[in-house]
Design brief:
Structural class: alpha+beta
Strand content: 15-25%
Distance between the termini: 54 Å
Number of helices: 18
Oligomer: single chain
CATH topology of the largest domain: Glycosyltransferase
CATH class of the largest domain: Mainly Alpha
CATH architecture of the largest domain: Alpha/alpha barrel
Helix content: 25-40%
Radius of gyration: 26 Å
Number of strands: 16
Largest sheet: 9 strands, antiparallel
Shape: globular
Bound molecules: alpha-L-rhamnopyranose
Length: 544
């Protein structure tokens, strides 16, 4: 965005200048480096395994389950005019393109055939009417397509990429003068997760083995030519999801080039003032979601780069992107008030903070914690890059922010941080202050226990937030609690039939949706794949 300033100089000339693009000299080469690191996708041809029927069951997740009724031949070898509808099961979640053939089986085709396809990640998606559509995101995300087909015998490929396990076919229109069958359905599934993952110790409890497997499936499906947040929706690179995915990748597929690509893409597509956009798209040419910035996400870029450097020792990339790290911190520090407390009212700018899909959550304390966490990680990065001199003040500011938070936000009697004007108690406030290093392990344990046990405390909603809760538990030595939570929460999804982990999950509400329509939720979601990271990184906790 070029802001044009008209500067009137001593009444003699009018000079036109542009607000400076802080990355002007680097953008081009950053984009080239992102392109050079673009993975070649692994393609696998997958066949459906059987036909299913939907069964209403109030005990099943969102009220629906699937039952096997026949093998694929009972579709392929019969008239589809008679059958009219079928549901095929691919047996696991896939991301890719569908091909099939139509074969005339009686008389000469004299008209096209009209078919409707619906693809679903979970059973209820096939059994909940999409229209009239009540959701707040585009109706077009829902995976139904109508095709009018005149080609017989040729392989037909549906252009749109789908993310699904179940495929429903319905007959909408056919000629009375000939019959036809559908055959040869295949999915060309794609992923950039090609590395071999490490086997878990034999002592690992079966439920954890299963959680690990589903986590890796989730990550694998989201690893395409960027780390997508969800292969069904939104199919783009979001910084918050990326931070977690790249860490799981470190402990699993080890495709570090994909991480490098995403770091460069985000940097190259930042705003002229240096701020990162919260999410970016790859096609038709790489571009950001213009004007969308999320401060907690922007700051997580710094930690992502630090983890990437520690894993790969790729100093060249880290040095190249160091200015981006500095700019994210500088921008965020502009929100500190005179008392070293993060305060959105300091700047007259609109500010989006995410942290969780929970409108009730007051994010003031969480933001204080995340900013300290970022300062600490950015200082670590500076040390590794010999850049300490450039950011000497960051370590001091981090300490001052901790001191200020303890003075203004901490209630020693209860041992917890309370957030905002309403003094709200939440689990996430404690989580981020623990991750910032403001509390000792025993103080952290106390704070978390109070926040977890209090009936008025705000609890996390998305797996994204649960990730940080487990991280905080491990940081303050609550190993058993961390293990139990991982088993209860992600194991809860496994017990309800998850092939891949879901974008939102609340054990008490199967129908929860941030978008006012649960079928548009993503059921293979990046930020939900992190159990594999915990399980591999902390074998003493999770593999025994
Ligand atoms: C949604 C997606 C994505 C997340 C953002 C904040 O669009 O779920 O994963 O990062 O929100």
């Amino acid at each position: 965005m070029k802001k044009t300033l008209l500067i009137l100089l001593t009444g003699l000339f009018i000079v036109t200048t542009s607000a400076r693009d802080v990355y002007q000299t680097q953008r081009h080469s950053w984009l080239e480096k992102a392109e050079a690191a673009k993975p070649v996708l692994l393609k696998t041809i997958c066949n459906p395994i059987c036909l299913l029927k939907s069964v209403h069951d109030s005990n099943a997740f969102q009220g629906w389950k699937m039952e096997r009724i026949a093998d694929m031949d009972s579709l392929y070898k019969v008239s589809f005019k008679t059958k009219k509808e079928a549901i095929a099961d691919f047996g696991r979640h896939l991301t890719g393109n569908i091909s099939f053939r139509l074969k005339a089986i009686d008389n000469t085709p004299d008209a096209p055939v009209r078919l409707k396809f619906t693809f679903a990640e979970v059973p209820a998606e096939l059994n909940t009417p999409f229209d009239p559509y009540p959701g707040v995101l585009s109706r077009a995300w829902l995976q139904d397509e109508i095709m009018t087909i005149s080609q017989f015998d040729d392989e037909i490929t549906i252009p749109r990429r789908f993310a699904f396990r179940y495929m429903k076919i319905e007959l909408l229109g056919a000629s009375p003068y000939f019959d036809f069958s559908i055959s040869g359905i295949t999915c060309t599934a794609t992923t950039s997760a090609i590395g071999i993952t490490q086997k878990l110790a034999d002592t690992t409890p079966p439920v954890i083995k299963e959680i690990n497997r589903v986590s890796l499936e989730t990550l694998k499906e989201c690893m395409q030519s960027v780390y997508e947040d969800g292969p069904k929706r939104d199919r783009r690179l979001w910084i918050g999801d990326f931070y977690l995915q790249s860490q799981v990748n470190t402990y699993s597929f080890k495709n570090h080039n994909l991480t490098k690509r995403c770091l460069y893409l985000l940097a190259a597509l930042a705003a002229d003032d240096g701020q990162l956009h919260a999410d970016v798209f790859e096609t038709p040419i790489p571009h950001p979601q213009l004007g969308v910035h999320c401060l907690d996400y922007s700051l997580l870029f710094n930690s992502t780069l630090l983890e990437y450097l520690k894993t790969t020792n790729d100093k060249e990339t880290a040095l190249d992107l160091w200015p981006v790290v500095q700019n994210q911190v500088k921008y965020a520090l502009g929100f500190l008030n005179g008392n070293n407390i993060f305060d959105p009212s300091v700047k007259k700018e609109s500010l989006w903070l995410f942290f969780d899909w929970n409108d009730k959550l007051d994010k003031t304390v969480a933001m204080q914690g995340l900013l300290i966490f970022t300062l600490n990680n950015s200082c670590q990065l500076a040390r590794l890059l010999n850049k300490e001199q450039e950011v000497k003040e960051w370590a001091t500011i981090s300490l001052q922010m901790i001191k200020a938070a303890k003075k203004e936000m901490f209630v020693p009697k209860q041992g917890v941080f309370l957030s905002g004007n309403q003094h709200q108690l939440s689990q996430l406030s404690q989580v981020w202050m623990i991750l910032s290093g403001a509390l000792t392990p025993s103080e952290g344990q106390k704070a978390l226990k109070v926040a977890i046990e209090s009936p008025i405390s705000i609890y996390p909603v998305a797996p994204y937030a649960y990730h940080y809760l487990i991280e905080a538990m491990i940081k303050c030595n609550m190993k058993n609690e961390a293990k139990k939570l991982l088993i209860d929460y992600w194991g809860g999804m496994v017990n309800k039939g998850a092939d891949t982990f879901w974008e939102v999950y609340d054990a008490k509400n199967d129908y929860l949706s941030p978008y006012s329509f649960y079928p548009v939720n993503s059921y293979c979601h990046a930020w939900s794949c992190t159990p594999a990271y915990f399980i591999q990184k902390y074998p003493d906790i999770f593999q025994k």
